[in-house]
Amino acid sequence: MPAGRYVEAVTDATFSLAPGECLALVGESGCGKSVLASALLGLLPGNAETAGSARLADGLDVLAADERTLARSVRGRRIGLIPQSPAAHLTPVRTVRAHLEETVRELAGRSPVPGGADRAAPRKRFGKDDLRAAAQAAGERAAFPATHLDRHPHELSGGLAQRAATALALVGDAPLLLADEPTTGLDRDLVRRTVDELRAHTREAGRALLMITHDLAAAERIADTVAVMYAGRIVEIGPAGAFFGRPGPRHPYARGLLDALPERAFTPVPGAPPELGALPAGCAFAARCAAADQICRSRRPALTEGVACHRA
Q1: 200-254, pLDDT tens digit by residue?
Q2: Do 100 and 223 fall within a single domain?
Q3: Are 303 and 238 in contact (CB under 8 A)?
Q4: Is residue 113 pLDDT above 90, yes or no?
Q5: Between the CA of residue 78 and those of 167, 181, 210, 211, what are the distances in Å?
Q6: Residues near 213 by Cβ (< 8 Å), separated by ≥ 6?
Q7: What percent of the chain has pLDDT over 90?
């Protein structure tokens, strides 16, 4: 991208999540999914600009919050994050137990005050034994084996690193959990186990879960709602049952994603997504769509009744 050039990485992304509900945000790499998650946590680069609002149940608009509020009462407390490539986000010289104890001390020992967006309750003091027990309990919530708590990140398999990251994300009992590509690099058995555990945590604790993924099989297993993103925009959103069953997706791109699955037609979507800095005047998917006509190429479709397509 040329220096000094701005692009709209995410545009007109509108959705809501209720307690106990999972929304799967799906799409090809580079479509803007992880940028959206970073915006919710205030982790965009310093030269990024945001507009609109993202309100939590207590009324806090995280897009309008300052860094102090985000650091003290949002990250980990109101919004938990399971990052993409968990092992890369763990400090290599510290054990899993050390990670958990630090997180317990910081988050469980200092929770947000209701109604105070930038204040926190007095820090709770943990004795050594209490802290050790709390860290072990946090690991158990994510089915992380106690026998591996004293291992370092490089000594963990991909599945165990994923469980460690999940345990860290659950410590603060955040009402919203963001899981950014939580199944990347896992075999199918571990994928099923991971999404089942995330689903159980969401339902049992009444958390909202935003799962960002390109794995449609995982999305089908866990999601209540599916939102399909293409070139920075949500092009279809609706109930997961209708998306994966009948009547099925309505947007040609969404249908193409399903047809690319091995258990379906195993036919990849032709072509490649456009660059975000050089989007066409009309539908961004028109060049890859067999049904596109002149209207598609000249006028960008709005998201209407859950789908952004002139031919839907």
Answers
A1: 888 888 999 999 999 999 999 999 999 999 999 999 999 999 999 999 999 999 9
A2: no
A3: no
A4: no
A5: 16, 20, 13, 16
A6: 24, 25, 26, 179, 181, 182, 183, 219
A7: 67
Q: Which two tokens stand for residue 213?
A: 């993924």
Q: Among 148, 174, 200, which residue terminates a domain?
A: 174
Q: Indicate if 64 and 170 belong to the same structural domain.
A: yes
232 and 122 within one domain: no
Last residue of a domain, one of 139, 174, 209: 174
Answer yes or no: do 230 and 256 share one domain: yes
* H or E element in which residue 166 lies: helix 158-170
**Domain encompassing residue 118:** 58-174
Instruction: Please tell me whether residues 138 and 219 are part of one structural domain.
Output: no
Paired tokens of 40: 């919710």
Place of tokens 């958990």: 100
Residue type, 194: T
Residues 308 and 194 both lie in one domain: yes
Measure Cα distances from 259 to 267, 274, 310 in Å.
6, 21, 21
Residue 85 belongs to domain with CATH number: 3.40.50.300
Q: 249, 250, 311, 257: which is closest to 286 by C-alpha?
A: 311
Cβ contact 279:231 at 8 Å: yes
**Which tokens hold the place of 276?**
């975000």
For 136, the token pair is: 């072990």
Nearest to residue 160, comparing CAs of 212, 80, 87, 82?
A: 87
Which two three-digit tokens encode residue 32?
Answer: 């803007």
Bridge partners (DSSP) listed for residue 222: none
| DSSP 8-state class, residue 288 | G
Whole-model pTM? 0.90
